[in-house]
Amino acid sequence: MGKLQAGIIPVTPFQQNCTILFDDETKEGVVIDPGGDVPTIVETVRQNGITLKEIWLTHGHIDHAGGADELREILGTPVIGPHEADRPLLERLEIQAEKFGVTMAVRNVVPDRWLTEGEKVSFGDHVFEVFHCPGHASGHVIYYNRKAGFAHLGDVLFNGSIGRTDLPGGDHETLLASIRDKVLPLGDEVGFICGHGPGGKIGEERRTNPFLRGL
Fold first, then answer.
1. Cα-based distances in Å from 188 to 14, 179, 201, 205
2. Total-model pTM
3. Most buried one in 70, 84, 162, 189, CB count within 10 A?
């Protein structure tokens, strides 16, 4: 097995970071949060010779999960995660689309497997620990690769900000607790990709992110 690599495909008007994680030797990998623009995702994967083994979801908001069922149908690839607390969101993605006036193709989706705190997911030799981090959404999970010192944080923590808590399933104090108890203990040197915008390092967020003061 080779090194863990990551590529980002910004998708939909939400400019959500659909992320491809893959092994640079075997080209096996997974896609995290295919929120939409599925033909673009499929074409990018095929152009780079990547074989997707699974689709991982961080949570059930439309911009992260709206294309998961379509991608599963095209590739025959199972959808894994998030925590089952987000079932109501995932079963109502089409209603979310109507509510937000989204015109892109969106399908409801029920994952092939829900995830819980302490589970592990993997492709090849690349193993990720699962942490349940509610606050932005009730069933939000993050994925942490201890060997690589890397995490995918979805919409829990951003570069210079944190996830919104005014959407269904959101709660500000719960989100701060998830960051304090689950994200920050991963370590200052851990690099991360988030759901929107540039990633960074956890230590830099601990030091400079205004939302984390006092944590």
1. 29, 13, 7, 9
2. 0.97
3. 162
